[in-house]
Amino acid sequence: MTMSDDPAPVPRATHPGREDPHTAHVVDGNAVVGALTDLLAGDLSMLMVECGGCQVTAPLAEWRVEADRDAFIVRCRACTHTLWTLMRDDRGAVLRVAGACDIRPASV
Question: How would DSSP label each residue in 30-92?
């Protein structure tokens, strides 16, 4: 059995910021591709990012970034909480999400 072969419902699923329990379904990663594509479409510098440490919200372009030849570390300007690290090596790029943060399109 593969992950996509199990469409079983997950009763009483809850999500942060949402108090009403609802039914979710177990599906594979292809289900999120469209939503992720929508989120990352357009001007990425205007993605609204909320720090999981202090809850400050600002466009991605305004966050503090520490950069060297191998990595970009995105930090909160207010509390210096690490939000994520984008690393590059021989295999390509990898995004490591370090702390809880919300990322939303600028129009929301």
Answer: HHHHHHHHHHHSS-GGG-EEE-TTT--EEEGGGSEEEE-SSEEEEE-TTT--EEEEEEEETTE
Residue in 108, 59, 99, 104 with CA at minimum distance from that of residue 80 = 99
Give which of 29, 23, 106 is closest to 61, Cα–Cα.
Answer: 106
The pTM score is 0.67
Per-10-residue mean pLDDT for the chain, 108 residues long? 52 65 76 84 89 92 94 93 92 85 77
Give the integer Cα–Cα distance in Å for 106 and 108: 6
